Amino acid sequence: MRVLASAAWIIFRALTRSRDKTRVLALPVVFAVVALAAGCGGRGSQPNLVNGKTLFVQKCGSCHTLARANTKGIQGPNLDAAFFEARRQGFEDSGIKGVVYNQISHVRRGSIMPLNLVKGKNARDVAAYVGFAAGNPGKDSGELANAGVAKTSSKPAVEKNGQLNIPANPTGALAFQYSKATAKAGQVTLVMPNKAPITHDISIKGNGVSQQGPRVGQGGTSKVSVSLKPGTYEFYCSVPGHEAGGMKGTLTVK
């Protein structure tokens, strides 16, 4: 198993080593090893792609871009770019699933990916979804289309008594529960309860203001107090990759 995991890692590095992250080892042995690796990750019942996508968004989307999952993380490899060329040259879903499963199960030393991020059947479900989605153009349909979707209120958050409550999305998706907010001019405290399984903060910039709240893990609360004059501002999460991934909104001060 560990030999196959090492082989899968070599393949994955080959897929992500170049700047555009699409380089592939075009050798028959690569396909053979990936097929074996897929076998290691394919035991048990049929994978649940809905569960896999939901967990991917919660656990992996903050670091990886994957178009079908609507995630835009930039700390880890762009999975569409990493596997697009491999898929074009003949890799099937099961082959990509095998590589991803072994990366999840055997995290390399020094990787930013935590150990035991997902385990057991959940790990197989995540790997199966990435195997299906990575480098595969189009959009998910049916039940899969709604899996892991961050629910953002269509109404703005409204400042009350100088406080503006803007929670992080609890699913782990890179989003706040509000994409818009309004406040009166003056001293305002932005408050972000974080029920998500990853670290976030709430920060604000624009119109001459630039301040960041403390980063907090699950169960923590990030706050930042600023004096605001009328105008438009952006509230965002300053954790690397989170703003770029979509964790931001517009604050209008009147």
Quick synopsis:
With 254 residues, the protein is α/β, with parallel strands linked by helices.
Question: What report would you give on this structure?
Answer:
There is one protein chain. Helix 2 (28-41) packs across helix 5 (93-105). This protein is an alpha/beta fold. Helix content is 32%, strand content 19%. The model is unreliable at 1-42 (pLDDT under 50). It has a 6-stranded mixed sheet with strand order 3-5-11-10-7-8, with no helix packed on it. The chain is built from 7 helices and 11 strands.
> What is the succession of H and E elements?
HHHEEHHHHEEEEEEEEE
Strand order of the largest sheet: 3-5-11-10-7-8
> What's the N-to-C terminus distance?
62 Å
Describe the global form: elongated
Helical fraction equals 25-40%
What is the alpha-carbon Rg in Å? 20 Å
By secondary-structure content and strand pairing, the structural class works out as: alpha/beta
Fill in the keyword field for this structure:
254 residues; six-stranded mixed beta sheet; three-stranded mixed beta sheet; 7 helices; 11 strands; disordered N terminus
Write the layout of secondary structure elements.
Blueprint: H1 2-16, H2 28-41, H3 49-60, E1 65-66, E2 71-72, H4 79-88, H5 93-105, H6 120-133, H7 143-146, E3 157-158, E4 163-165, E5 180-183, E6 186-193, E7 203-206, E8 209-212, E9 221-228, E10 231-236, E11 248-253
Parallel strand pairs: 3-5, 4-6, 5-11
Antiparallel strand pairs: 1-2, 6-9, 7-8, 7-10, 10-11
